[in-house]
Amino acid sequence: MLDSATAPAIQADVTVDNDDEIFCAACAHTMTRQRWAVSRRDAHEHTVFNPAGQLFTILCFAEAPGAALHGDPSSDFTWFPGYHWTVASCRCCAIHVGWRFEGADVFFALIKPRLRTAK
User: Fold this and answer.
1) Residue partners of 102: CB distance under 8 A and separation at least 6
2) C-alpha angle with apex 65: 25 to 91, nearest 5 degrees?
3) Can you give the pTM of this predicted structure?
4) Which sequence spans correspond to the domains of the chain?
5) Which end of the chain is more exposed for a tag (fewer CB within 10 A), N or C?
6) Which residues contact 118 (CB under 8 A, 6 or more apart)?
């Protein structure tokens, strides 16, 4: 049995750990955390398009452990000069959720509508 002095601290830890989770919109698998948000080209959020003209709103994160990578890194049509990208999908349901960029550092550009903050 927990004494009352330790119970609130444990509850606070659980709340902090889960507060900033960001989930896959399709299956609710944990994709990343808000605390891992980063800015690239002076912004966290970007609107970009691919060679086929598809428009994406992306959010940048330092980490995305819920993402699986597919294929080899490419520098073709990169949105971030000096970075190579690799396609990223949800580890649970395999929906395309964004890209991993590597260059001077590594970050993920995740497609905003494919994420949600509530499970």
Assistant:
1) 73, 83, 84, 86
2) 55
3) 0.83
4) 7-116
5) N
6) 23
Which distant-in-sequence residues (6+ apart) come within 8 Å of 33 by Cβ? 20, 21, 22, 61, 63
What pLDDT does residue 56 have? Answer: 98
Look at residue 50 in the predicted model and tell me its pLDDT: 94
Q: For residue 73, what are the CA distances in angstroms to 61, 66, 102?
A: 18, 19, 8
Taking the mean position of all CA atoms in its chain, how far away is CA 14? 21
- Under the banding of pLDDT at 50, 70 and 90, the label for residue 119 is confident
pLDDT band (50, 70, 90) for residue 19: confident
- The domain made up of 7-116 has a fold known as 2.170.150
